[in-house]
Design brief:
Shape: globular
CATH superfamily of the largest domain: Periplasmic binding protein-like II
Strand content: 25-35%
CATH topology of the largest domain: D-Maltodextrin-Binding Protein, domain 2
Number of strands: 16
CATH architecture of the largest domain: 3-Layer(aba) Sandwich
Distance between the termini: 50 Å
Radius of gyration: 21 Å
Number of helices: 10
Length: about 290
């Protein structure tokens, strides 16, 4: 009879991602698991980005992969809000993945009257769709692969998704690539539970200020300038508490050591109502 304690010790790591199978999130999860040497990880699909994060926060999964920023459409607000709401989660690694959308279907292109996909994917292909299928109704779905699943077998529906999704759901590639920007890419984050590190080449953080007064944000950003920390991104989100109150999300190029980041955060802390470092981490860029 096997020892139950030993069996638990060898359970594979469970990694949540935005499903179903065939999403760009799955591609990112597989590559991040490879980068982190998680060869035996079990990928667990979830419906919606918040569900991905919740699977990690609740302990159902050991890690999670979420999209946080697209080069065309900007920040993925659901991911940013989830990081702000879960202080027990940390960024362990980032991956920049090229996004090459295809139009998938089972019927001819000129017969398509409905196009399904995630809202970000539809937006990233808006010019192509307006030019080639101007009369088609665009319908949002929870993911690109879910759109591919929903259009399978239909002669009048098509999905904006990856070529991998076409193989998974038995669809034809009607057009490829259809994204408006050739350099379209998305940054994905691998999240884990535990301490948030301040050592790594990139760092992500967010803060809200004590008051909305002239020069308050400039004073806060000066904390980074004095330490020679370059901001690669800054984005604001409503605090959801009152009108005119915002949370500022910032990505910093940290360099080799954590000293400058630690010092900048010490300078910034007295200016903030709330300050959260999501972690400093390595970043990998695919081409």
């Amino acid at each position: 009879m096997s020892d139950p304690i030993v069996s638990v010790l060898f359970l594979p790591m469970r990694v949540a991602f935005l499903g179903p199978v065939g999403t760009y999130g799955e591609q990112a999860a597989r590559q991040l698991c490879e980068l982190e040497a998680l060869a035996d990880a079990e990928l667990i699909p979830q419906r919606g980005i918040r569900a991905v994060v919740q699977a990690l926060a609740s302990g159902e999964c050991d890690a999670a992969v979420v999209p946080v920023e697209n080069s065309v459409e900007g920040g993925v607000t659901a991911a940013m809000d989830a990081l702000w709401e879960h202080p027990d989660l940390a960024v362990a690694h980032a991956l920049v993945l090229p996004i090459r959308h295809a139009l998938l279907g089972s019927g001819p292109l000129d017969g398509i009257s409905e196009i399904l996909s995630h809202p970000q994917a539809l937006a990233q292909c808006s010019q192509w769709l307006a030019s080639h299928l101007p009369r088609a109704l665009q319908l949002p779905t929870s993911s690109t692969a879910e759109a591919a699943r929903m259009v399978a077998g239909s002669r009048f529906r098509a999905a904006v998704a990856s070529q991998a999704a076409a193989q998974e759901h038995g669809l034809e590639v009607l057009a490829y690539p259809i994204n408006d920007a050739a350099g379209n890419c998305t940054r994905f984050l691998l999240l884990r539970r535990g301490e948030r590190s301040s050592s790594g080449p990139m760092a992500s953080l967010a803060f809200s200020l004590h008051s909305n007064r002239p020069g308050a944000l400039l004073e806060a950003l000066g904390c980074f300038e004095r330490r020679q920390l370059n901001m690669s991104r800054i984005e604001s989100r409503p605090s959801k508490r009152e009108m005119g109150e915002y949370i500022f999300f910032v990505d910093l190029e940290v360099g080799a050591g954590p000293e400058a980041l630690d010092a900048a955060l010490e300078d910034l802390k007295p200016l903030c109502d709330h300050l959260a470092l999501f972690g400093a981490y390595p970043i990998t860029q695919r081409v």
